[in-house]
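Aim 2, interim progress. The first record below pairs a target sequence with its C-alpha cells.
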Amino acid sequence: MEGVVNAAHEAVVTLSLEGPGGEARDIAAVVDTGFTGFLTVTPALAVELGLPFVGYYPRDARRWQ
C-alpha cells in the first residue's frame, strides 16, 4: 500500500469502496492510528454506494435516503 502525506501532515491512502450492488468509488482516506474496525464516510457517499448505516443516525438522516 502506498500513500502520501498531505499539507496537514496526515498520512493519506486511496481506497476503493464497493457497495453491495457493485457500485465503486475511489476515495482518499486519512490513516487513523486508533482504527477500531469501522470506516467513516459521508452519508451522501453511503447512499450513493448503497452502504448500510451502522451506529449513530443524525436527526436528518431521512434527507440522505
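The second target in this work package is listed in the same format:
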Amino acid sequence: MTRQRRLPTRPRNWRNWAGRLGLLTGLWWIISGGEAESWRWGLPAIIAASLVMPAPDLPLRPSAWLRLLPLALWLGLRGGVEVAWLASRPRMRLDTRLIEHRWLTLEAPAGRLFMASLINLLPGTLTIRIEHDRLQVHVLHYRDGIADALCRLERYIAPLFNSTDRRDEEAA
C-alpha cells in the first residue's frame, strides 16, 4: 500500500513545513550569494521541494549532536587530505576493498541510514549496501583502522537515534 503525500493541514505539520521551508531558503541564500535574480526561479523550487520533502525524523539531543560534530568534521578533513595525497601520487597502488560492518549499537533504521549517508560524505568511502544486520562499504585505500573507525562512528551516532543508550542499560 502506498502512502500519499498531503499538504500540511495540522499545526504541527505546518511547523515542520515552515522549518523545511526556512532551511531550504537559508541554503538557497547561501548558495546563490543572495543575488535577487536567482530568487525568481529559486523561490518556486524551494516551495515545491519543501512540500514534497519528507519531514526529517532526527531527534533533538544536543549533547549527542555536539559529540558527533567534531568527529564528523575531523573524519571529513582527514578523508579529504588522504584523497588529495592519493591523487598527487598516481603511481601509488590503491588497496580498494569491500568491507562489512556488523551493526553493534545502532538499532533504529533512521540511524543506520544516517550513518550510511555520513560515510558517503567522507572521501574514499562509499556505502554499497545496508542490511538489517550489516553495512557494506567500499574503501578506496584500505588500512588497519577502518573497521575501528566505523565502530567508533556508530557509537557516536547511536545516542542520536536509539531510544536508550546501551551504556545506561549496562550500568543498570
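The chain has two domains: 11-52, 62-171. This observation will shape the mutagenesis plan for the next reporting period.
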